[in-house]
Design a protein that fits this description.
The chain is an all-alpha fold. It has 5 helices and no strands. It has one domain.
């Protein structure tokens, strides 16, 4: 039962985040600068623990980026970061498939769930609070709808 909970937690995060890929950009990307570093190093995910740590880093990065949105200008600045996070969510989904949590020892998954559950919940709540904050302001809510971030936390 707990194995299923851990697997659902990780896969649910990645699948929900992948739903944001069809968002409409607020502004076209104007420069060819390298992508800014945001979120986890998803290419380093090769174990269940690394997957869980990367999921926590992802949610914290999402909360940080959403927290930076205060007006239309800051939303435009945040949009490239949100696109990067959407790509990382898809990569986390792929990593979850490669790690194959169903093949992991139940004791190991229970220990990981116990160890990281509080951190993950804290990060998830932070991101949800930022979405609620954005939705509470009519102007910011319009921006959120345009970026279509609601799917990141469903």
């Amino acid at each position: 039962m707990r194995t299923t909970a851990v697997a659902s937690l990780l896969l649910g995060l990645a699948l929900a985040a992948a739903g944001c890929s069809g968002s409409k950009p607020l502004a076209e990307k104007e420069d060819t600068d390298p992508e800014p570093a945001v979120g986890p190093d998803v290419e380093a995910v090769d174990t269940p623990e690394a997957l869980l740590r990367a999921s926590i880093q992802f949610m914290n990065a999402l909360a940080d980026v959403l927290g930076s949105i205060k007006d239309r200008d800051s939303a435009r600045k945040a949009e490239p970061l949100l696109r990067i996070l959407t790509g990382k969510a898809k990569a986390l989904e792929a990593a979850a498939g490669k790690v194959n949590l169903a093949d992991q020892p139940v004791e190991q998954l229970k220990a990981l769930e116990e160890r990281y559950k509080g951190e993950f919940e804290k990060a998830r709540r932070r991101a949800e609070q930022e979405v609620k904050r954005l939705n509470a302001d009519p102007e910011l809510s319009k921006i959120l709808n345009r970026i279509d971030l609601r799917n990141l936390l469903n």
